[in-house]
Write a structure and sequence with these properties.
267 residues; alpha/beta; seven-stranded mixed sheet; 7 strands
Length: 267
């Protein structure tokens, strides 16, 4: 059987990612590495870079897919309450830039060392991928998608990190803005990445609505526990893990996933 060249490249990036420091699991790396192969014109924008693991993966995958560069935005100050704690704001800029240089993608990443609302003041490019992994508060995530959603092209993918973790922002905004919106067709989760395909004013099928509403129902159980924890209530961690296990979030099959996403453009 002939090996699909896209899968070969993605598998190689997944193996390569083991050398990088960051907060992405293998299936999440696989998902991100698949995104640049969408057959749609537009830019790839990352909001929230931290040490650069997802930045490097997206940049390398984009190069394989024929893109000259990707765009990324992060103040690198760790000034948000939901930021990771395995680095300090003083050392993070050096870590990030050194990683881009070490792994050979510095020239391929157009980086904006600023908060996303500042980038929005100068941004005017159509998007094929919007990867949101910055401020995980509700206002932070909602602000990110609200500011950049208007640049999405039909067929574009929006994705949020940490939807299945204990932050309020990613899961709540994914439920409200993606699962309950008629502007997004197919949706799903891969690891803790929640994604939706933007279709704009195109009709959404009954089957898609059923799938989205079932996802909303399953995530609502987790949302309840996230809100309880956020407001100081004690949460049963075993119950939380059980509810999480009920949400489908397995790996994608890159060839089939890309083929299905690209088919939207031909409809």
């Amino acid at each position: 059987m002939e090996t699909n060249p896209i899968k070969t490249q993605i598998d190689r990036l997944v193996k390569f990612s083991e050398t990088l420091s960051g907060h992405l699991r293998k299936r999440e790396v696989q998902f991100l590495a698949t995104l640049p192969f969408l057959s749609i014109e537009g830019d790839i924008l990352e909001i929230g870079s931290f040490k650069g693991k997802s930045t490097i993966i997206l940049a390398k995958a984009a190069k394989e897919a024929g893109h000259e560069k990707i765009h990324a935005c992060d103040p690198l100050s760790l000034s948000c309450s939901t930021d990771p704690t395995d680095a300090t704001g003083e050392e993070l800029p050096d870590i990030f830039y050194n990683n881009l240089q070490t792994y050979g993608v510095r020239e391929q990443v157009e980086f904006f060392q600023m908060k996303s609302d500042k980038l929005a003041e100068i941004w005017n490019n159509p998007l094929k991928v919007l990867w949101i992994d910055g401020d995980h508060t509700y206002n932070g995530v909602m602000n990110d998608i609200t500011l950049f959603e208007k640049y999405l092209k039909p067929g574009a993918i929006v994705c949020f990190h940490d939807v299945l973790h204990e932050f309020e922002g990613p899961v709540r905004v994914f439920m409200e803005k993606i699962l309950l919106s008629s502007q997004y067709g197919d949706c799903g989760l891969c690891g803790s990445i929640g994604w939706g395909q933007f279709i704009g004013n195109r009709p959404i099928s009954r089957q898609q609505w059923e799938s989205k509403l079932l996802g909303y129902k399953k995530l609502s159980r987790l949302m309840m526990l996230v809100l309880k924890s956020h407001h100081g209530f004690k949460v049963n961690r075993h119950l939380r893990r059980f509810y999480r296990s009920l949400v489908p979030h397995g790996p994608i099959f890159p060839d089939d996933w890309i083929k299905k996403r690209n088919s939207v453009l031909a409809e």
